[in-house]
Amino acid sequence: MKEKLYFYYTNDLHSNFAQWPRVAGFFKDAKANRIARNESFWLMDVGDHADRVHPITEATMGKANVQLMNDLGYDVATIGNNEGITLGHDDLFHLYDDADFLVSCANLHSMDQIEPDWLQPTVKMTSMNGIKIGVIGLTAPFNDFYELLDWHISSTFRALDKYVEELKQSTDIIILLSHLGLNEDQEIARRYRDIDVIIGGHTHHLLRTGEHINNTIITAAGKHCHFVGEVILTWDHVEKKVVNKEAFATDISHIAKDLPTEQTLIELQETADDLLGKPIVYLKKPIEVKWFKHTEIMQQLTNTVKAWTNADCAMLNAGLLMDQLPAGDVTYGDIHRICPHPINPCVVTLNGNELLEVIRASITKDFMEMKLKGFGFRGEVLGRMIFSGIKVETAFHESGEYVKDVTYHGRPLDPSHTYRVATADTFTFGRLLPEVAKSETKDFFLPEFLRDLLADTLRNEDY
């Protein structure tokens, strides 16, 4: 006898709740079909379901995301870096207290030795006909951030060495929920033939029909749940093994929205509006925001970051502020609306030559007009870089703007001197500003976001 097992999944929703009613519609139909046919199925999430860019997630510190997953009947989930490093320690510790599903993350550990009740390294499930499935969850090892929040992410391969062997002895099928990224998933598939399925995320890759490496099928459904995933395993009860593995990522743009889910989201938004609606400051005049010009508010925010981090100088891109603020009461919801990015302040060390190169790169047209997506940035364009603690003079020639002079305390930058430069942690990733990303010293400030310092700026300045 052969039996098909169905595993449905989401990854990297990033609180894109506009899409969630379609996700609900798809999964409710899929589950009804499986129930009608008396077939075994499970619903899983691979992390970054919550993202504090959305006011619902911001107001509830991710608890609303858990509620929405409960409503759809999820069975198991792992955490992504957006759950792991954008919430304070206590908020993550209690995030899944009310979850009706299991949470697996084999490489997450609390540094105070007190683990949350919901945290399990592995999860075991059984099909209707007795097939035993073991699930391992793993998340990306951003320990520079995690350890500032009193968490630690241990070695991916040490966890796999331990738990794959354990599950091999006690289960028939092993599934990895991997918030590690495609390259890591491929390497894991090459090393661990006993893992049957890797359901991936983090790098937002889309594998429409899966990828086979050795004995493993790898799958992932992109970003924001425009696609959702399905894995179908065929188990032969005579041979006592999996004889076929299929994976699909389905475009759900044509799926009808689930009306009860839409109503729940309306209610959650009303709750969020109430929670974020308390005034924090009164503005006597409007605050102007411009992405490509120097403004008073961006200068004062950059000054705040410099002072708050005790850095020698600071630089922030004007695209961090996405909208104006009118005169009158300003609520935390207003602050979140104009600065929604889950971005922390950080300080890097650069010598004079490196700092000069960073400044030159930041005033180019290509940099200012870059439509960045990712690294925590949720804006439209990077915008003009604003500086504090250093004086940057520019001029124009035929090919555009260029740096004419940079001084620190009235003197030219010293190539041999090391400067502590405060900026957005966005620039410590990728190749946006290579000198910043390659700095050997990076001090991150958590759990405060730049919007928290924006609120402080508005409270402390005379507006």
What's a quick, concise take on this entry?
The chain is an alpha/beta fold. The chain has helices at 20-36, 55-60, 63-72, 81-85, 89-93, 143-146, 156-170, 182-191, 259-276, 296-309, 332-338, 352-362, 365-368, 434-437, 450-460; strands at residues 2-10, 40-45, 76-77, 102-104, 108-110, 119-120, 122-126, 132-139, 151-153, 173-179, 197-200, 206-213, 216-221, 227-236, 241-251, 279-283, 313-317, 328-331, 345-351, 385-388, 391-397, 400-408, 411-412, 418-424, 442-444.
Present the secondary structure layout:
Blueprint: E1 2-10, H1 20-36, E2 40-45, H2 55-60, H3 63-72, E3 76-77, H4 81-85, H5 89-93, E4 102-104, E5 108-110, E6 119-120, E7 122-126, E8 132-139, H6 143-146, E9 151-153, H7 156-170, E10 173-179, H8 182-191, E11 197-200, E12 206-213, E13 216-221, E14 227-236, E15 241-251, H9 259-276, E16 279-283, H10 296-309, E17 313-317, E18 328-331, H11 332-338, E19 345-351, H12 352-362, H13 365-368, E20 385-388, E21 391-397, E22 400-408, E23 411-412, E24 418-424, H14 434-437, E25 442-444, H15 450-460
Parallel strand pairs: 1-2, 2-3, 3-4, 4-6, 8-10, 10-11, 11-13, 17-24
Antiparallel strand pairs: 1-14, 5-9, 7-8, 12-13, 14-15, 16-18, 17-20, 19-24, 19-25, 21-22, 22-23
